[in-house]
Amino acid sequence: MTTTVNADPAELAKFSELAHRWWDTESEFRPLHEVNPLRLEWIDAIAPLRDRRVLDVGCGGGILADAMARKGSSVLGIDLASKPLKVAELHALEAQTEGVAYREVSAEALAAEDPESFDIVTCMEMLEHVPEPLSIVKSCAQLVKPGGWVFFSTIHRNFKSFLFGIVGAEYALGLLPRGTHEYRKLIRPSELAAYCRAAGLDLMQTRGLTYNPITRRYRLTDDTSVNYMFATRKPLASVK
Q: Is residue 175's pLDDT more than 90?
């Protein structure tokens, strides 16, 4: 059993340095603010959020967690970067968002402490930043109740994603800070699907997110060649 924390200190420091800008919609986090309504409505359409207990793994400054709470969920956001968590807590106080709380804890530790206790688990734009994404996927599966939903989003690893997701987004268009993503850490849909199978999660739906640099708008599509999302579900009972 490993006792090491499944986190890259350089990644935690990277996002901590920008924490004070998390809720600035014209900052480096503008793309997160722009895609948030799309991913929120997609999640809510598949697994209605009202009156559900929800966990947001790798919540950062709380953009998605706060929005899900405003849909009527009881939300816990967890992260290992303390500065973004403080920003998330402060925003919730200032915005008077009810039903959201934050905690500095790893997914693995929480899974051991409180298994099968959430109706919905989200893990968005996080897997590509950790040393062992499979460990996170397995922890999410442990944390969700039987019959519950787990949502993931990440970035494909191929030439197009390198061109659009890194060169275009970080260097040409300046949508993200340079160095936000490392190509070798990106995850192919086939790899994430294998992680989900290993964790006992059934893949129910896949969607892509595309960006139009002229209109500056994102939209949900069937194109998973760059940014993509998985909706997975934990079976009600294991098949013996």
A: no
